[in-house]
Amino acid sequence: MTNKKNLFYYVAPYCSILLLFLGWLYISSTKPELFPTPAATWDRLILLLEKPLARVPLWKHVINSLRRVVIALVAASVAGVIFGIFMGWNRTFNATLGSLFQIIRPIPPIAWIPLITIWFGIGEFPKVLIIFIGTFSIVVTNTYTGVAMVDPLNLAVGKIFHASKREILTEIVLPAALPAIFSGIRMAIGVGWAIVLAAEMVGAASGVGFLIFRGNELRDMSLIFVCMFIIGIIGALLSVGASWLERRLCPWKN
Fold first, then answer.
1. What is the 3-state secondary structure (H, E, C) of 30-51?
2. All domains of the chain, ordered by start, with CATH?
C-alpha cells in the first residue's frame, strides 16, 4: 500500500503537466487567434532568439529583469530583517515605527508606481524601488513573526543562565526565528519576480515585462505566451534555489 502511495505522488505531477498540455492543445485548436498552439509558441521562441526584439537578445532581457530583482531583494532582505528584529524585540520601536509600518504595509506596490514615476522618473532606480517596497514588507512581517513567536520558555532558560540581552537575541531568538525569516525571503523572491513585470511595463526598454508589454501592443499572443513560460520557469528555479539555501542554513527544520 505504501509503495502505491509513493508511486502516486511520483506520477501525479507529471499527470498534471500532461493534462495542462492537453487542455492547451484543445483550447488553442478552437480559438488559435486568442490562444496560440504549442507549435506556434515554440516557433515564436525560435524567432525571438534569431531576431531579438528592440535589438536586445532574449538572454539579456532575462538578465536585466533578474538584476533588478536581485538588487531589490538583497536590499529588502537586509533592511527587512533588521527592521523586523527591532519590531519583535523592542517594544518602543514596535509602538512607534512598527505602527507606521502597519499603516503603510497594506498599500499594494503597484499603487506606488504613479508616485515613484513622478518623483524619480522612469530609469532603473524607480523599478528597483518598486520591487523593494513589495518585498520589504514581506520580509519584515515574517521576521517580526519569527522573533515574536519564540517560545518564552527558551527566553526564561537564557535568563536563568544569566545571559545578556544581546546573547539571548543572537543565540536563542535569531536561530529560532531563522526558518520564518527564510520563509519570508522565499516568498519575497516570488513576489519580487512578479512585481518586476509590472515595473518594466512603465518606461522600460528591456526586460521580460517589457516583452509582454510589447506583445500586448503588437497583439502578438505567441510572444506573450513565450514570456509567461519564461517567467514561470525562472520563478520555479528561484524558489528551488531559495529552498535549497534554507535547508543548508536551517538543517534542524528538515
1. HCCCCCCCHHHHHHHHHHHHHC
2. 44-249 (1.10.3720.10)
